[in-house]
Specification:
- The structure is a homodimer.
- Chain A is an alpha/beta fold and about 325 residues long.
- Chain A has two domains: about 1-120 and about 300-320, ATPase, nucleotide binding domain (Nucleotidyltransferase, domain 5), CATH 3.30.420; about 125-295, 2-Layer Sandwich (Nucleotidyltransferase, domain 5), CATH 3.30.420.
- The first copy, chain A, is built from eight helices and twelve strands.
- A five-stranded mixed beta sheet of chain A has the order 3-2-1-4-7, with helices on both faces. In chain A, strands 10-9-8-11-12 form a five-stranded mixed beta sheet, covered by helices on one side.
- In chain A, helix 1 crosses helix 2 (about 95-100), helix 4 crosses helix 6 and helix 5 crosses helix 6 (about 230-255).
- Chain A starts with a strand and ends with a helix.
- At the A-B interface, strand 9 and helix 6 of A face helix 6 of B.
């Protein structure tokens, strides 16, 4: 059986799995990224984890290669460059250093592009040639496919839409210190910040009046919305409005057939998606109206990022 | 000698020329688009003009085909759809109807995409695979090339960036009634509107205090800036600031190697380009800094749009 190692390096967790040709993740595990502040320790931990996973694999297998998704990773240079959610600063030659430890075919790409490949091979974008995957976790990422090809950009860093400025130089600051940057509003973190903002703007009673920022989790905001908490509902509406505007703007860029949404914020379901659809249609130019779909990821949530990373290798076998 | 007919349909003029393989426009002429409010009359006028140009052509020639650039034109449907600067409303089957009159190979595409092809074959983008052409005339258009291919979008209407909203639903209205739309600020028309705005905001003496909006022309704003007119200088600075922010945002989308600027606003030279460079570098994310060029069109101004339209046909011969 042919398998591909998929690795998703995130700010919180590094997830590793073994993925078959249908995009099924057969074995998987994870460890906490921040426990390995030294890059060499981190790479050793990856190698040990892969060895561990493969040694437990019950069937005969052949490893075709290893695909890696990571924030700010460039496929063109094989490096991770100034990722705001990772501890290693500057330009990290991750591909080269990992290949020294694991001499198999290996590719790296930024996490949102990897998610787009995963949706194209295994998920909601099967058969599409023009679509955008939006990842809504700690930050806001985008993987853009046009003409059936990923757009990587001149330096391999296309799609960093979380830091585009939505307010002509005013507004909230992102992790990269961009004022008015999109991900300061539209992301799991952005939603938390908006819970704070709505408490500043309104006097409604709310369960959040007794919860500090650091104790606040996305699931709780969804639960509060389900109970009609006015601060939660206002926060979702506000987030959806800015996101609807952003997706309408992005439509004017590459005119995708669909946006495919994944990540923590999407788990809030109708509380974010219903107002999002309303605002998106309101802001969309007439020439695009009713022609752009909003879809949820077609990959199983917990292994989507691993499957996407594996798609980096599997796509070469699909094309043959 | 092989030649291609290039046609640029604009809100003001329709330009027609005969273009050789090196992108030189050998013969050219134009007529006023608005004098032909009836579509059939307009198409007859195009055919007559092409016949007239070719009958005068001094050498033996072979017409390879006809390329057409027009606002809101879709290469996928061959139509022009709801172009705000043209008189014909709804969806116009221009390609089909013109081909009835001129049975030669024919292609149509939106004017900014056509400009991008022209720059790639004959102009400033020779050899580039990732770049964006920005046209700054009556409106704001963009032709986006990534991975060496034009991005046309699912319905052939990608790149309509003039109507993206820069201000979260507030601000000036565009021709498509988008509040805060980019081209309401950044275009030849946007600059005129900013001359009005600066007169509302400041009390400086200025030659524009005695010129009405309808009598205002771009060349005059440039001339005023050269004389140090404070309203003109403030208007250029303001325009450049919003444009710098927009181009920085666009960089996060496809990470182009260069932006190539053309159209009326660019003719203001250093008055727009110097502050533009300053603001663009200020707004650009660190990961992109010093890696994105701002270039002017490499095509002769008066025939650039004709050469671009002809590139629609010439590109097929280049690829062979």
């Amino acid at each position: 059986m042919d398998i591909v190692v998929g690795i998703d390096i995130g700010g919180t967790k590094t997830k590793i799995g073994l993925v078959n040709k249908d995009g099924n993740c057969m074995e998987k595990t994870y460890f906490r990224t921040r426990e390995y502040p030294d890059l060499d320790d981190f790479l050793d931990k990856i190698k040990d984890t892969v060895d561990d996973l493969t040694s437990k694999f019950p069937e005969d297998f052949n490893i075709l290669g290893c695909g890696i998704g990571a924030p700010n990773a460039s496929s063109k240079t094989g490096t991770i460059k100034n990722a705001s959610n990772l501890l290693w600063k500057g330009s990290i030659p991750l591909l080269e250093k990992l290949q020294e430890r694991m001499p198999i075919p290996m590719k790296i790409m930024n996490d949102a592009s990897v998610a787009a490949l995963g949706e194209m091979l295994f998920g909601s974008a099967k058969g599409m040639k023009d679509f955008i995957v939006v990842t809504l976790g700690t930050g806001f990422g985008a993987g853009i496919v046009a003409n059936g090809q990923l757009i990587e950009g001149y330096g391999g860093l296309a799609g960093e839409l979380g830091h585009i400025d939505m307010t002509i130089g005013d507004g909230r600051v992102t992790g990269l210190n961009v004022k008015g940057g999109l991900e300061a509003y539209v992301s799991a973190t952005g939603l938390k910040r908006t819970i704070m903002y709505m408490q500043s703007q309104y006097l409604d009673e709310s369960r959040f009046r007794s919860i500090a920022y650091n104790d606040l989790h996305g699931e709780e905001i969804t639960a509060a919305a389900a109970e009609g908490d006015p601060i939660a509902l206002k926060a979702f509406d506000f987030t959806a409005k800015i996101m609807g505007l952003a997706l309408a703007n992005f439509t004017a860029f590459t005119q995708p057939e669909a946006f495919i949404l994944l990540g923590g914020l999407v788990n809030s379901g109708k509380y974010i998606l219903d107002p999002l659809k309303k605002y998106f249609n309101e802001y969309l130019l007439d020439i695009y109206k009713d022609e752009v779909k909003l879809l949820r990821s077609g990959l199983p949530g917990k292994t989507a990022a691993i499957c996407g990373a594996a798609a980096l290798i599997w796509q070469d076998y699909r094309e043959q």
